[in-house]
Design a protein that fits this description.
Blueprint (H helix, E strand, L loop, with lengths): L10 E2 L2 E9 L3 E7 L5 E7 L7 H16 L8 E5 L6 E5 L4 E2 H8 L4 H20 L2 E2 L8 E4 L2 E4 L6 E2 L20 H4 L7 H16 L9 H10 L12 H7 L10 H11 L11 H15 L24 H6 L1 H5 L6 H4 L25 E6 L6 E5 L2 E5 L3 E6 L4 E6 L5 E2 L10 E4 L2 E8 L5 E8 L5 E6 L6 E11 L2 E8 L6 E7 L4 E8 L5 E3 L6 E5 L3 E6 L5 E6 L2 E7 L2 E6 L3 E5 L6 E6 L12 E2 L6 E6 L11 E6 L6 E6 L14 E4 L2 E5 L5 E4 L6 E5 L10 E6 L2 E6 L4 E6 L4
Antiparallel strand pairs: 1-2, 2-3, 3-4, 4-6, 5-6, 7-9, 8-11, 9-10, 12-44, 13-14, 14-15, 15-16, 17-19, 18-19, 19-20, 20-21, 22-23, 23-24, 24-25, 26-27, 27-28, 28-29, 30-31, 31-32, 32-33, 34-35, 35-36, 36-37, 38-39, 39-40, 40-41, 42-43, 43-44
Helix pairs in contact: 3-5, 3-8
Length: 727
């Protein structure tokens, strides 16, 4: 917890604020105390969002949803004022640690604790579902372990069970390792979705690892939807129960009430002490002691250490306080994001960093609500195109409808689910979209349409390999050939990369993949298609699909800058590799070298300059908020210049680096979903647009060109467009 500074309020409603627990995308969370001595967590909305009527409505709905839920194992709303000049909400403060942190620090829980955990979360879900809500983000980070049992928190993305939205565009869709299959596929949700997530959460508590593995969010979601997890290491007494929750068909899963009855029938010894392991209980006791001893802040005091308070596991008092956000935050909408936001700005290097307040705010050219999921947006020849599940919408540069093309008439579904995906690509005046042929037998297919008219030119099945089921990723078009990933019917995770000739509508070659391709690049003139799974980088020759080389690496990004292949890793390094051999040619350190989207770097038209983000925070393990835009020479490895950017209003999100180059701008989307237009000659900001900052950046995908920057919220189906000059 951080001390209050001159910018923080001292009172909010009837509550005296004692310290700052953390800052999220929607506001700041404070530890507060009522006149009667009750300790609460107070969420105060950001001042700029307080003037956004759409956000106010979202916040009001969030509070309403949280107030509908009551029960011993949830954290109730104590008070709120959604109509105040600065809206706020206070929830009961739960002295405890998150399940995620407890397992990470102390290891898996024993079986008896798992039974209590299961029953307690089930009781919470009974109350959530009785209020007509689906939680939608039940995960270890949103389960608090307290001495009186587990508590379910974070109702910021809950929705009514009938599917009507209670959160506005940009709402978080859930934590990838704990999604239900229907969530991963963008299908309608019922309360059974929470039951699947519950089983994944209990499995994490039992194993200490994610049931569906680690890695790229799309890869994890794919495994959730398509694979059967290995339950052999789960305790024998819980395995059948959790297996019944993890079936793909939601209608056959047990209800929370069924699960409670099963736990009661099984019976277990009465605990002689805490229901938790000793080390976890001791940490919770230390948290309670520290928090109950907090005094109201003295404006003239800098704070002191208390040597008599001895937290467990060697944690000092200050370190424990600084870790309390992940252990005690109980407010809707920020619990899932605030764990990474500790440490303030103390890590920033002393550089001449411009202020965001000095950068002009761009004017939104137009925004349209398609009212249907739109996982990808593209723009060319005066047309902005949104790709949906069964339709492509063509819009004029002014945002008016130009045409709509439906794949249903061609017995084809194009996108899958509501997550941002690249399933389409442009080549001249043609838009090509990959998808699924719905005629039997099912198979991967490609649709081609004219950009200017929206007329469908043709659809074609991908019949090599013969057992394809769907296009899973579109990596680009080079010399009339589309490179894409298709799923196969030969196994739960069988995939292949395919070179598909767009003129003959035939597969030139296919290459079976061990793993899930998450990045790919086509360096100009290299004769190589390079793709990366979670552990391997592989280059195939574009003529016949033969493997040219492979490297064992855990890539953070893969991109092309002209003829150069650029690869990032988890050690904050960027490499230029020879696409022909895979050998390292250049290396830069201290770079933000990871991205969850195919846009972690940018380059100019001829590939002579790579634009990347250099990290300016001294401690790379702390939240990253300070960056410079670096112009790199891929031929020599020289850094031409690096210009400090304004400090991010929110630390880098799970998306990581996001950069585009088009129309004489380098575009950046930061952790708070603020879009920046930067001068490619010197890196200085030209304009910014903060109108997307209430959204969740993992939901957003974008495209630039044709004098437009277009951003779509995949789940909400909105497209926002800015002119390249910001006017």
């Amino acid at each position: 917890m951080q001390q209050l500074d001159g910018t923080d309020p001292r009172v909010m409603g009837p509550f005296t604020l004692l310290g700052r627990l953390g800052t999220g995308g929607m506001g700041t969370v404070y530890l507060g105390r009522s006149p009667g001595g009750r300790t609460v967590a107070v969420k105060v909305v950001r001042a700029d969002l307080a003037t956004d009527e759409a956000f106010r409505e979202r916040f009001h709905r969030e509070v309403t949803a949280a107030r509908q839920v009551s029960g011993a194992f949830t954290a109730p709303v104590v008070d709120a004022d959604t109509e105040a000049q600065v809206p706020w909400m206070a929830a009961a403060f739960v002295p405890g640690v998150s399940l995620r942190d407890a397992v990470a620090r102390h290891g898996p829980l024993p079986e008896e604790a798992l039974r209590t955990l299961l029953a307690g979360i089930d009781e919470a879900l009974v109350h959530v579902h009785a209020a007509g809500l689906v939680h939608r983000d039940l995960a270890p980070a949103n389960v608090m372990l307290a001495l009186d049992g587990p508590h379910v928190i974070d109702f910021g993305i809950s929705r009514p069970a009938d599917g009507a939205a209670v959160t506005a565009a940009g709402a978080i869709v859930g934590s990838p390792p704990y999604l239900s299959p229907e969530q991963a596929l963008g299908e309608p949700l019922t309360s059974a979705s929470d039951v699947f997530s519950l089983a994944s959460t209990i499995a994490y508590a039992a194993l200490g690892t994610h049931l569906f593995g680690e890695g790229h969010p799309v890869a994890v979601a794919f495994r959730v939807a398509s694979t059967t997890p290995d339950l052999s290491r789960l305790p024998d007494g819980l395995r059948p129960l959790l297996a019944s929750c993890l079936v793909k068909d939601p209608e056959t899963r047990p209800t929370p009430a069924d699960l409670i009855a099963s736990v009661e029938r099984a019976g277990h010894p009465e605990p002689s002490g805490s229901w938790l392991p000793e080390a976890v209980a001791a940490e919770i006791v230390a948290v309670r002691r520290v928090m109950t001893e907090l005094q109201e802040p003295d404006p003239g005091s800098e704070g002191t250490e208390d040597p008599e308070v001895a937290p467990p596991s060697g944690l000092g008092r200050r370190r424990l306080l600084l870790g309390l956000t992940g252990a005690t935050l109980t407010l809707a909408g920020v619990a899932g994001t605030t764990y990474a936001l500790l440490g303030g700005d103390g890590n920033a290097k002393a550089v001449d960093r411009p202020s965001a307040a000095d950068v002009p705010e761009a004017t939104l050219a137009w925004k349209i609500d398609l009212s249907k999921p739109c996982p990808q947006v593209l723009t060319t020849k005066g047309v902005v195109m949104g790709v949906g599940l069964e339709s492509v919408w063509g819009l004029t540069g002014a945002g008016r409808s130009k045409w709509t093309a439906s794949s249903r008439d061609r017995n084809m579904t194009m996108a899958m689910g509501t997550m941002p995906l690249r399933l389409a690509g442009l080549d001249g005046s043609r838009l090509y979209v990959g998808g699924l042929s719905t005629t039997m037998p099912l198979g991967a297919a490609v649709l081609a349409l004219d950009v200017t008219s929206g007329d469908i030119a043709w659809t074609a099945r991908i019949d090599d390999p013969v057992d394809t089921t769907a296009v899973m990723g579109w990596w680009g078009v080079k010399d009339g050939t589309a490179y894409l990933t298709v799923s196969l019917g030969t196994g739960d995770t069988s995939l292949a990369v395919v070179a598909f000739d767009l003129a003959s509508r035939k597969v030139r070659w296919s290459h079976d993949v061990d793993g899930i391709p998450i990045y790919a690049a086509l360096p100009t003139g290299s004769g190589r298609f390079v793709f990366a799974t979670e552990s391997t980088l592989t280059a195939l020759t574009t003529t016949d699909g033969k493997q040219a080389w492979t490297r064992a690496v855990k890539p953070g990004l893969v991109g092309a800058a002209g003829r150069h292949l650029v690869v990032g890793d988890s050690e904050y390094r960027l490499f230029v590799l020879d696409p022909a051999t895979g050998k390292t040619q250049q290396t830069w350190t201290g770079m933000l070298s990871v991205t969850a989207r195919p846009d972690g770097i940018a380059s100019d038209e001829d590939g002579t300059t790579v634009y990347a983000l250099r990290m300016d925070d001294k401690d790379t393990k702390a939240p990253l908020r300070n960056f410079s835009l670096a112009a790199l020479d891929p031929a020599t490895g020289r850094t031409r210049w690096a210009t400090p950017l304004p400090t991010d209003g929110k630390p880098t999100s799970p998306v990581g680096a996001r950069l585009l180059y088009a129309d004489g701008n380098v575009y950046r989307m930061d952790g708070a979903s603020v879009v920046w237009a930067l001068n490619p000659a010197n890196g200085k900001p030209r304009w910014k647009y903060t109108g997307l900052s209430s959204g969740y950046s993992m939901n957003l995908t974008w495209a630039a060109g044709d004098r437009h920057l277009c951003v779509t919220d995949a789940a909400a189906g909105t497209i926002a467009t800015l002119n390249s000059n910001g006017a």
